[in-house]
């Protein structure tokens, strides 16, 4: 006799696919933005990181999920002719410093040790929440770094260096400790692409401003400020984001962003590394990293009817797979839909009648059970 495949087994692959789809979603977005330079002549590096800070905030990531690390020695520098202000364009149309900025690691707190401790959550027990990266395995993380660097190293405030191996090992610890779902690593420095050459952890997408033996260049200077105010790679990333990604509902993908890179404008060869990433770039929204996750949960009202409809469709599918053309029991049964009854008194009487009927049936069943037990007790037992 040929074994008959049950509908539930046939539907198992479908259910597994649905579960996989749910698990593939992330529930939060975080940003770690780092300027590793200090001193007035590195004004543009501060402007770079503050520009990215403004962008992720504009697209919805709250300050509670942004870690901002910078020397913070420019806004109030005595050489700044625009005190308490930082600009990324010579027209000075936008003050990046403003009155709504939260710096989490400032001045000499911006060190290699603190950066790695932040990523791996190896911080002191009394570290405030604002200085911790409170992510989990459902968090997407955008890591942006800018400063002076070279072949597989990035300087921190002209005092120390972090290597490509250090960052790669830190990311591996994060993966082992389930501290991220997917990660976008972006770096603007000389020979930037060498900084992600040692990565080996899964689900990391990386991009940089220049390849080996190439410098990264500033875009333009402000004559009144006296120094360059932004780097080219960051400038053209921001230009695309400002012109195309207007809000968190944007459908532009990372492929669109990377395709916009023009070596003639950037004056170097930006790179993108995708071999560790498990998704196609044309399927990854920019807001998957730059924007906030806005999953909305609604009340259960109406969910029961929706569940019934879904169950009915699954039953039809199962019946059709088992015996083509045969109607399922759920399909044969009349579909009861909820209607609006305007006469509330009539509804009350119907419900009351049903209640009395159910009570009578219950009492009758109890009496019959009692009679059967009593009758059994009177019958003499045979040895």
TrEMBL record:
* Keyword line: GPI-anchor biosynthesis, Signal
Signal sequence interval, chain numbering: 1-24
Question: Mind naming one GO cellular-component term on file for this protein?
Answer: GPI-anchor transamidase complex
Q: Which InterPro entries match?
A: GPI_transamidase (IPR028361), Peptidase_C13 (IPR001096)
Query: Could you give a single Gene Ontology term from the biological process aspect?
Result: attachment of GPI anchor to protein
Q: Which residues are catalytic?
A: 148, 190 (nucleophile)
Pathway where it operates: Glycolipid biosynthesis; glycosylphosphatidylinositol-anchor biosynthesis
Q: Could you tell me the superkingdom of the organism this chain comes from?
A: Eukaryota
Q: Does the keyword Signal apply?
A: yes
Extract the GO molecular function terms from the UniProt entry. GPI-anchor transamidase activity
The answer to keyword Signal applying to this record is yes
Q: Which Pfam families does the annotation name?
A: Peptidase_C13
Similarity remark: Belongs to the peptidase C13 family.
Tell me the protein's name: Peptidase C13 family-domain-containing protein
| Native source organism of the sequence | Sphaerosporella brunnea
